[in-house]
Amino acid sequence: MIYQVLARKYRPQTFSEINGQTHIITALKNALSLNRLHHAYLFSGTRGIGKTTIARVLAKGLNCKKKITDNPCRKCQHCLDIENGTSIDLIEIDAASQSKVEDIRNVLDNIQYYPLHCRFKIYLIDEVHMLSRYSFNALLKTLEEPPNHVKFILATTDPNKLPTTIISRCLHFYLQKLTINEITKKLQDIVNKEKIKTELNSLTLIAKSSDGSMRDALSLTDQAIALGNGKINFIDLKYILGIIDEKYSLLIFESLVKGNIKKIMCLLDDIEKNGQLCENLLIEILSWIHHIAILQILPDSLPEEKKKYLDILNNLAISVSPSDIQLYYQIFLLGRKDFYYAPCNRTGIEMIILKAIAFHPKVTESYKTIQS
């Protein structure tokens, strides 16, 4: 049996299976149940959050043999054909590869013909922002007043590139990134079904690294399972993501506050030996600075997983003024912009840390002593 990647195997097939996007799902289900159907829908949002999935579920709701419904039966031939990608009346167009005006005109030439089997002929245009200006112009009139048997569903990752004339003719839904909890819950459900051994902190790390994208999270899960020989190992996962042990980033910031340059260089040597000297170190330091800034205002606000470092963080929150914390945060935040222009990762990170140390009172006094 051919292996099917998790992102395809566990693609939602009904509205109830879709993670997040509650406001959109509710609106679409109500429209289907009340039979108040728009002729053109536009789904926008970042990659891997369910635009095409929602579009296909909507297509099933519109064309289910039973009736127009917010709960497709998934048993009739129409639903099965849409699920299998073999429906003649669901025409999926990849605008990235079919962006020319000739491609759109070929679609428009056939739009007058009634669907062969289903209730509606549905045109699903993915990455619609990739269409050329002439293609958009050719589409305008038909998109405004299509035949009664035609529905348009457009999907894009960049709605800002769409002409306002196109957006105004559609019912526009903006999909939000999924939260860490939503992704973690879904991953937990999938690994249980797949009988994969793992820990909650591994799934949480995957969820954090996926930046709100369920597809990215599932691809990373596939990679972790392959590396872990059938199980998800937290150590392997950190290696895949290039994530350093969080204690290193905290010790570097603590040494920075103390003005201990020698210790910082030793810590960087240790990190470099593990091949993990990259931008993630700067991100980790920024995260610690954020926790310290919050502790200065709300002493009991530290997340449970960070409480093992409570003593160090409390000492830093007391010893560093809020204004200095903000200064350090800005230095590391802006340093990320310059990081990619550095000759190498080590040089980039060292110069950002040295810039932060330059504002340390102890270092400033030493410099004045040398000058005098």
From TrEMBL:
- BP GO terms, sorted: DNA-templated DNA replication
Spell out the reaction equation it catalyses. Answer: DNA(n) + a 2'-deoxyribonucleoside 5'-triphosphate = DNA(n+1) + diphosphate
Q: Which Gene3D superfamilies match?
A: 1.10.8.60, 1.20.272.10, P-loop containing nucleotide triphosphate hydrolases
**Database matches in Pfam families:** DNA_pol3_delta2, DNA_pol3_gamma3, DNAX_ATPase_lid
EC code(s) of this entry: 2.7.7.7
* Swiss-Prot/TrEMBL keywords: ATP-binding, DNA replication, DNA-directed DNA polymerase, Metal-binding, Nucleotide-binding, Nucleotidyltransferase, Transferase, Zinc
How would you summarize the oligomeric state and partners of this protein?
Answer: DNA polymerase III contains a core (composed of alpha, epsilon and theta chains) that associates with a tau subunit. This core dimerizes to form the POLIII' complex. PolIII' associates with the gamma complex (composed of gamma, delta, delta', psi and chi chains) and with the beta chain to form the complete DNA polymerase III complex.
Its recorded name reads DNA polymerase III subunit gamma/tau
Q: Which organism is it from?
A: Candidatus Tachikawaea gelatinosa
